[in-house]
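pinned: reference chain
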Amino acid sequence: MILVDSFGWIEFFTDGPLAGEYAKYLQRPSEVIVPTIVLYEVYKKIKNEKSEEAALIAVATMQNAQVVPLTEEISLSAADASLSHKLAMADAIVYASAIQQGAGLVTSDKDLKGLPHVTYFPKP
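pinned: its structure tokens
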């Protein structure tokens, strides 16, 4: 299982410089998990920068993967991760979602770099 964070999905949908790297992880949707907070971030960014139609198409594509809701367990784990690793709320929720699902996390977020089970691609 793999969790691609918001930046990775946005790179993929906008054909950014790291789109190819992230695409490798998105080839098998049945093995990809998507926290609901990632749906929020991707929809908001693409709607703001492109259009509502593009944002809805992106979300529909993401829903082919396994969407993971924010549960009480993930919320508490995220709070612990936030305190332990000094993470912002969204980063902590994404990280806790990956851990709870037994998934690796693929990201370009420097705040997550070096944490267990994280694959990091530096932003160009």
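why pinned: DSSP finds six helices and five strands in the chain. The domain at 2-120 is CATH 3.40.50.1010 (Rossmann fold).
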